């Protein structure tokens, strides 16, 4: 019996819930929200669509006591990011929200995995780890999973190949200091840098730099256009949860404790990691160039300063 508890039934949470239903992700999905009536309504709405899906998922609104035997608690609760608002501005508001969530989840006897999607996700993941006291392997965030998917989509479109054949990652903060380690980016088994060098009249370095900037600014563009982002991240959460529930050993760029990697301690940031039923099985430490290491250090410094700005 695979059970997930979703805390927060806003647009991100319900995009995840809807995608979960359509992909038959788990056997049991519990919805928790500070607005209990909303959670009840959302559960009803999803249940009314069961007849049109291949899923037999049990969906209901619940309480924190329902977390006791859950495999995963997905946290999407928090203040939404407004147009023009930087992710760090959300930090203090969402830290208070998390204090009211993580403690009762732990008190229920929960022994599973915390997956955090609330922004600023890297810091909120560290907040969750601090409050819960859980092992580092069992607390991680969505990190740059969606950013990496955006990158592969844009690179696939530019080079004219299936994004699934693009192996490239976005690392660091899920935000303004994130970066692409181009020294590790591959089209199938060929380095992107080599593709550019071999095809100077077709593909340009400036276009690759434009793509990186577009990935970094995608969320802001979407927020300006429609008020919020939720479909992409909802589906990213499904992918991460599937990797956990099916013990896939999938490599995903989640936000996890770097724990000595890249000369970092205690910092949570987006990095390729192997995800399975135990959570973060291990990190894959890339051979970054000096320039890329500097970018990662700058990103980690920012995340460290954000965490220091709050009181736990």
Structural overview:
The protein has nine helices and twelve strands. The radius of gyration is 19 Å and the shape is globular. The strands form three sheets. It has a six-stranded parallel β-sheet with strand order 3-2-1-4-5-6, with helices on both faces. A three-stranded antiparallel β-sheet has the order 7-8-9. The protein has a three-stranded antiparallel β-sheet with strand order 10-11-12. It has helices at residues 11-22, 36-47, 91-107, 121-132, 145-159, 192-198, 205-226, 231-245, 290-308; strands at residues 3-7, 28-32, 58-61, 72-75, 113-116, 139-141, 166-167, 186-187, 190-191, 250-257, 268-276, 279-283. The protein has 312 residues and is α/β, with parallel strands linked by helices. It starts with a strand and ends with a helix. α3 (91-107) packs parallel to α4 and α5 (145-159) crosses α7. The mean pLDDT is 94. A hairpin with a 2-residue loop joins β8 (186-187) and β9 (190-191). Helix content is 42%, strand content 17%.
The SS-based structural class is alpha/beta
Give the N-to-C terminal Cα separation.
35 Å
Specify the number of helices. 9
Low-confidence stretches: none
Q: Biggest β-sheet: count, sense, barrel?
A: 6 strands, parallel
Strand percentage lies at 15-25%
Shape: globular
Tally of strands: 12
Q: What share of residues is helical?
A: 40-55%
Average pLDDT across residues? 94
**Radius of gyration, whole Å:** 19 Å
Task: Give, in order, the helices and strands.
Answer: EHEHEEHEHEHEEEHHHEEEH
